[in-house]
């Protein structure tokens, strides 16, 4: 089989960290692979080109451009981190991989990135506890509905099967820690709270606590790497309808985290009080944080009863736990003060629809 890997969102927090991890390897199957990085802008392309990888500047919403990029660069494996929301992008990539498979006669693979919030009551999950070894795909289809991430999950599995592409779905939790990529080094949730708190001189939390799944960025990236290694070694692992991988290392106690954020910012003189207040409304929370109003409450209060099985069966061994997460909050605040130079665009499609 071929071993040409394309990482989408390579200028982003997760994609950039995946790229940094892959190119830093000194041995193993990933070291022997050819790595390509997909970016949107010329500025991003110039920044990443210094890494010695094949940088592809491409509009992933342009189906013709995507097909040309995949075929011209002979891409066999796509690690898709660019968007869990816009179904057009994985659709274009999967169709292109299907064409690549016909041309090369070799298997092609698509690794999708979803989110764990979907599998909570607040995210529309009515079935209670869920293991990633359950019939997750069939249950997602039963739920249906307009949620763009769930729609994209279903699309990925169905289109991959239709085009002869082997698919996997890494279901991404709340992620924290400093990224190792060249462009965006900050996650989404905690930086948004820190940024908003500094702007308004007050830390807010929701009136309901949440304990969602979480993972440090370094642990999450090791899961992506482990999955790619298994693919390159031609190991038989769960894929397609059975290919969900819950990337849960521990849980995030949101109220405790908000307390730590308030204490850290207050100690720096950046907020007036050392304890959080309650958001007056979900609309205000969405406006201040820059999150989509339809999903902001689920993002801030959900927990879900997820049981990760597939990731650990691969051999995933996350190093960070809840205690270490809480102890790192001050560094999370400091990281925003040092590194908050690149705007997050993950919710642009949804927040524009709110307006």
Kindly describe this structure.
- This protein is α/β, with parallel strands linked by helices.
- The chain has two domains: 4-175 and 214-246, NAD(P)-binding Rossmann-like Domain (Rossmann fold, 3-Layer(aba) Sandwich), CATH 3.40.50.720; 186-212 and 251-303 and 320-348.
- Helices cover 43% and strands 15% of the residues.
- It has a seven-stranded parallel sheet with strand order 3-2-1-4-5-7-11, sandwiched between helices. Strands 8-10-12 form a three-stranded mixed sheet. A two-stranded parallel ribbon has the order 6-14.
- The model is unreliable at 349-355 (pLDDT under 50).
> How can the largest sheet be summarized?
7 strands, parallel
Please identify, by name, the CATH architecture of the largest domain.
3-Layer(aba) Sandwich
The SS-based structural class is: alpha/beta
Strand line-up in the sheet with most strands: 3-2-1-4-5-7-11
Average pLDDT value? 95
Distance between the termini: 47 Å
What Rg, in angstroms, do the CA atoms define? 20 Å
What percent of residues adopt helix (DSSP H or I)?
A: 40-55%
Element pattern in H and E: EHEHEHEHEEHHEEHEEHEEHEHHEHHHH
What layout of secondary structure does this protein have?
Blueprint: E1 4-8, H1 13-23, E2 34-39, H2 42-49, E3 54-57, H3 63-72, E4 77-80, H4 88-104, E5 109-115, E6 130-131, H5 136-143, H6 148-162, E7 166-172, E8 174-176, H7 189-200, E9 204-205, E10 213-216, H8 217-232, E11 244-246, E12 250-251, H9 254-267, E13 277-278, H10 282-289, H11 296-301, E14 306-307, H12 310-314, H13 322-327, H14 329-339, H15 348-354
Parallel strand pairs: 1-2, 1-4, 2-3, 4-5, 5-7, 6-14, 7-11, 8-10, 9-13
Antiparallel strand pairs: 10-12
Helix pairs in contact: 1-8, 3-4, 4-6, 7-9, 7-14
